[in-house]
Write a structure and sequence with these properties.
alpha+beta, Nuclear Transport Factor 2, Chain: A, 4 helices, single chain, Nuclear transport factor 2 family protein, six-stranded mixed β-sheet
């Protein structure tokens, strides 16, 4: 899997996320970014999920939550990757989230997520990710 393919994949993912922030989420297209099963590791622990109706519900709730928090945009800053083999890599994706703050100016928060990505017979699919403490980062910036 090459870097230009990953770059295009995450540019599309950014576009889908932006649509979700404006309540125009194409949940089927977002779900198509994920493998049939996936794992997530955060400071809250490790969880596993399936790409089914429950994922669509979680995505819908997630977009609603981001809108309630005042999330205005999620911008892709950069993508780099660590190939594992011909079919797998870790994509190190840098994002900037911009939030509206009540009674104050917007705040931009930079963070990185490390996605486990597989490309078999078709486009890349996310089968896992590792991220930092999003809640603590937002609180530190007066969000939430």
């Amino acid at each position: 899997m090459d870097l230009p393919t990953l770059q295009a994949f995450f540019e599309r993912y950014q576009q889908l996320f932006q649509e979700g922030l404006t309540d125009r989420a194409d949940l089927a297209a977002v779900a198509a970014s994920y493998a049939a099963a996936f794992v997530a590791a955060t400071p809250a622990g490790v969880s596993v999920g399936r790409n089914d109706e429950q994922l669509a519900d979680v995505m819908r709730q997630g977009f609603e939550r981001y809108r309630r928090l005042g999330t205005k945009s999620m911008a892709l800053r950069s993508v780099r990757h660590s190939p594992i083999d011909a079919l797998h890599c870790v994509a190190h994706v840098a994002w900037t989230a911009t939030y509206a703050r009540a009674g104050g100016s917007d705040v931009a928060i930079d963070f990185e997520v490390h996605y486990l990505v597989q490309q078999l017979d078709g486009p890349p699919r996310i089968f896992g990710w590792v991220s930092g403490d999003e809640e603590a980062l937002m609180r530190a910036h007066g969000i939430g």
